[in-house]
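Budget justification aside, the reviewers requested a transparent look at the raw inputs and outputs of the sequence design task funded under Objective 1. We therefore reproduce one unedited record. The lines immediately below are the structure tokens for a 491-residue chain.
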């Protein structure tokens, strides 16, 4: 007994003798790391003075940099980018806007011309483009496993390349690469902000893995294996913790919807500097479509506008439409047509369209469903102007620009009862309904049947109210809320 006690005391003394040197060594390493980081920061600040030249008036312009590696993509995120730059150029005279981009296959002039051609956005002053060579580091295809972590770490290296090429005064991540924020804030000495279109990870994603639900981002072989599900859950929780740390570094946080706001507040816990800035939608183009009472009730068209991506859930649209047809054919009803309009980005999207066509054949609705791929804008406007119902089925869509466009064009919208459409878009306006929401195949079929059963006068009332409601998603409203949100960065 005594010998055992002596052994225990000896072990404790040994641990203490090792602990003190270990703590001392850790302290020295921490001090060295702080000195190293501070040295890098000073070197970067010196480099900033060397790279930045004075303007025509002799004063150095305020450099506002946007991190947008795919600025020439032509999507909704790019519309936010160019509207934001145009807004700053109109408000601040002594500002030079910089865009970090990996689009090395185009010149700066071609990118600006593309923004004008696609979005009708004309910039009042030149933009400086910093072309990045390592954009491949943020491609999802480079990381078949641990994609979230791989892309996030890749963005840090891409951000480092950007920082070395141009050190701004204000840095805004406009594409969702939150892991670059501490890099520019603590090493670059910048004031930092971000516009979040979609959280890299959300509490909904955590619940999907926790409940072992099979989704497009949670494969069946994982949900069927409890061990793999537990491992993925731990990985997601670790990533969510890191995502919260880097996101909370931002001085200004802008989100595109109430749905995104709720998730960012939960993960980043920075409510004091977070605000909703709805993305600018080109509503005026669709509002120019004349809104008239339906002249013919012999044929109705139901239109869906979205890229052919898995999360858009086009199969749900086809199954619900087939169910609607089956129920309506029991009586004498007008003919119905489902028109699926969308873009195909690659071979995977094209194969997805082929699978949808096969589903139409299986359900016996091939003659009633039309696919329109990569169509011109004028044809899109024509289909929307003739449509009775605008259809949307994506679960937890972060905002829903397509939903706004359908409402502005004058369709009666039927969207998924989740995300941005539920919280921000298809909501009562001045006490009147603006559209309808559904969740599953039966809901969609029943609601489409109900909309078609309404009188043309009642549908016109809903369409007019929906049109009035979309003005809050206009370019002008975006400019006002964006300037209000970024104002602290310019003080």
């Amino acid at each position: 007994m005594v010998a055992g006690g002596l052994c225990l005391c000896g072990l404790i003394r040994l641990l203490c003798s090792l602990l003190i040197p270990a703590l001392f060594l850790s302290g020295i390493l921490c001090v060295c790391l702080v000195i190293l980081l501070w040295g890098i920061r000073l070197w970067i600040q010196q480099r900033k003075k060397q790279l930045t030249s004075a303007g025509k008036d002799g004063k150095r312009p305020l450099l506002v940099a946007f991190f947008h590696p795919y600025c020439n993509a032509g999507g909704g995120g790019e519309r936010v980018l160019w509207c934001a730059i145009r807004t700053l150029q109109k408000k601040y005279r002594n500002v030079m806007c910089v865009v970090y981009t990996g689009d090395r296959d185009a010149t700066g002039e071609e990118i600006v011309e593309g923004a004008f051609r696609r979005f009708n956005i004309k910039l009042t002053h030149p933009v400086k483009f910093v072309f990045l060579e390592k954009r491949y580091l943020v491609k999802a295809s480079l990381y078949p496993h641990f994609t979230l972590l791989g892309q996030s770490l890749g963005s840090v290296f891409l951000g480092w390349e950007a920082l070395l090429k141009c050190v701004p005064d204000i840095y805004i991540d406009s594409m969702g690469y939150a892991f670059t924020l501490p890099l520019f804030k603590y090493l670059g000495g910048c004031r930092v902000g971000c516009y979040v279109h979609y959280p890299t990870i959300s509490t909904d994603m955590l619940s999907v893995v926790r409940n072992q639900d099979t989704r497009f981002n949670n494969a069946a072989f994982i949900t069927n294996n409890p061990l793999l599900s537990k491992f993925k859950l731990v990985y997601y929780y670790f990533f969510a913790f890191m995502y919260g740390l880097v996101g909370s570094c931002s001085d200004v946080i802008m989100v595109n919807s109430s749905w995104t706001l709720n998730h960012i507040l939960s993960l980043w816990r920075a409510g004091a500097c977070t605000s909703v800035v709805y993305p600018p939608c080109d509503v005026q183009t669709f509002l120019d479509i004349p809104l008239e009472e339906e002249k013919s009730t012999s044929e109705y068209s139901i239109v869906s506008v979205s890229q052919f991506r898995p999360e858009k859930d086009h199969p749900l649209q086809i199954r619900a439409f087939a169910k609607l047809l089956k129920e309506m054919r029991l009586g004498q009803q007008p003919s119905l047509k489902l028109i699926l309009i969308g873009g195909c980005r690659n071979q995977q999207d094209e194969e997805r369209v082929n699978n949808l066509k096969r589903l139409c054949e299986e359900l016996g609705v091939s003659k009633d469903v039309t696919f329109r791929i990569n169509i011109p804008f004028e044809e899109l406007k024509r289909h929307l102007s003739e449509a009775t119902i605008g259809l949307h089925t994506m679960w937890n869509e972060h905002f829903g620009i397509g939903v706004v466009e359908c409402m502005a064009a004058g369709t009666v919208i039927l969207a998924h009862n989740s995300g941005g459409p539920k919280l921000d878009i298809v909501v009562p306006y001045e006490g009147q309904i603006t559209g309808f929401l559904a969740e599953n195949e039966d809901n969609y079929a029943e609601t489409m049947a109900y909309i078609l059963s309404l009188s043309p006068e009642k549908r016109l009332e809903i369409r007019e109210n929906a049109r009035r409601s979309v003005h809050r998603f206009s370019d002008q409203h975006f400019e006002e809320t964006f300037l209000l949100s970024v104002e602290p960065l310019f003080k």
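The mean pLDDT is 87. The two ends are 71 Å apart (CA to CA). Computational costs for records of this kind are itemized in the attached budget.
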